[in-house]
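G., before I forget:
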Amino acid sequence: MSRTQNSKLKTQNSAIVEVRGLKKYFPVFSGLFTQRVVGWVKAVDDVSFSIRRGETLGLVGESGCGKTTTGRCILQLERVTEGEILFEGQDLTRLGDAELRLLRRHMQIVFQDPYSSLNPRMTIGQIIGEPIWVHRLLRDRGECRDRVEELLTLVGLNPLMAQRYPHELSGGQRQRVGIARALALEARFVVCDEPVSALDVSIQAQIINLLEELQGRFSLTYLFIAHDLSVVRHISDRIVVMYLGRVAEIADRVELYESPLHPYTQALLSAVPVPDPAVEAQRERVVLKGEVPSPMNPPSGCVFHPRCPIAVEECGQIVPQLREIRPDHWVACSRV
Amino acid sequence: MLARLCKINFVATLLEVRDLRTHFHTSQGIVRAVDGVSFDIKEGETAALVGESGCGKTMTALSVMRLVPKPQGSIVGGEIHFQGRDLLRLTEQEMREIRGAEIAMIFQEPMTSLNPVLTIGRQITETLEAHERLSRDTPEARALELLRLVGIPDANRRLSDYPHRLSGGMRQRIMIAIALSCNPKLILADEPTTALDVTIQAQILELMRELSRKFGVAMMIITHNLGVVARYADRVHVMYAGKVIESAGARDIYQNPRHPYTLGLLHSVPRLDQPRKAKLDPIEGQPPDLWNLPQGCSFSPRCKFVIERCKREVPPLRDIGAGHRSACWVAETLSQGKVSSS
């Protein structure tokens, strides 16, 4: 990333989170007894963006593009290989465990799978109450119980649910519990990692509405990670498109969906099905050839060039930098 | 009697399911996973069976294949006529000759539905050998031809590869090749693209459409996403709590839904082709508890259009004109029938 971009990002002083040159490589081991590192999976490779206070930033891409890893790196659930993560100006990558723990109160996560992210041996009340105890926000059992009931009501559940166990709840109800747990510490920033993709269609809309309502009420900032582009358009203010560990395009919602510039974004958008045969019959589809290459051995130059419909020879040699083509619309493609 | 009548009237009907009932016996009681399901599939047609998890769509397909998990599950009633024969009256041996050869199935998880210790080539030739459909070609030559047909690059080398070396999209192509291997009349595809990324999903669906046209195979695509099938289905059957609640031609059902549940499903998803709504319009309430279904219409507790009668009587699936069927007492008067962009 060039210096001009860095200074540009710095001037956006309303940022709550800034990601600068983030890299996360996972080692690949080989050998049955002697574990040798034989290669690296470049899950996230030089990613930079910022999240503004109060906004919802959508992070989209196909499986394996590094969107979840990026989210986990921001929360320091993964140690970064290189780069900086600034949360309210503080570089999280340089903090010790104790300092991090204090900050964790303010940044929480809602996981994708509501079936495996709640401890089956704890009651709903214990699950939501645990972070309150850990951070010693309330020391009185009665007060804590009241707070749990308040949180349950807030996410649209009956306060009596506190006595129940996760297996007694439906997927949608469990996801509401996950949201209540994330809100228990009055977090300012929440990473929502595919929060609705495991839910039935009729329930997805309920959860999205709930997330939006809570955001308005507590002025939360969301990083919304998803692969469903229709859902992302609905909830996000700005959107980051990732492909194979790199950022392809960053733009605000209207701009990205009305005039996508990166050929990958265009293909991605055209592949999203519309529930209306009359509309579908008239839509043109850019069906991408081939599949996502392995992040262990990404293509040279622009990582998208083997599948790109407009690639030229030099795309295989030069790594395109993220450039600001229009105000606030960044694209990493040399052909735009 | 019914079968004979239908045979005279609709020569082109390939599969006729009539009042199918598949029940599960669990420690908490009987679950009516499939509760009186009826639908037809015509030759060469692509039908979609749409519904949320637990609505009985997969069990309907497994019942057609007579693969309902035993001993908990059993088909307790109904008829399944395939090319004039009632599949439920066939012996197990006769059924084995139909499975794979006449009716093939593609499963949701390409990761788990291929055998990890057999090569790709062996898995295709296995089906061919089982049904002895080899006139002049050797099975290997046919396997190679099939791999090329489904667009596997470097097919020659892939024959001796194992499934773990292939990506999800490639594995689903192999599943399609296996399904096509004996030139079936009907392919049941259970969520064929749910486990795949959106760009790969488009590739696979286009491939399935192309092949079904080329060989005149009828398909039943099972999915929970109404959007996925809009482009591909000729007819759509929507299921809820073990019953078909609406059934119509694809254009008709998307533009003029006549059941509150279908209407709710269409309204609740954000659409890329329409202006963004300030707020989504979800279906309120929880999915039905199959052990404890309400009296009357199963959808009534979540329905916006509910009337007194819905809570007492189960609405039958009835004709409401032009091949459109709905199981709703107020189907004719659903005023918000048109999906508006407001």
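DSSP finds eleven helices and twelve strands in chain A. The radius of gyration of chain A is 21 Å.

More on Monday.
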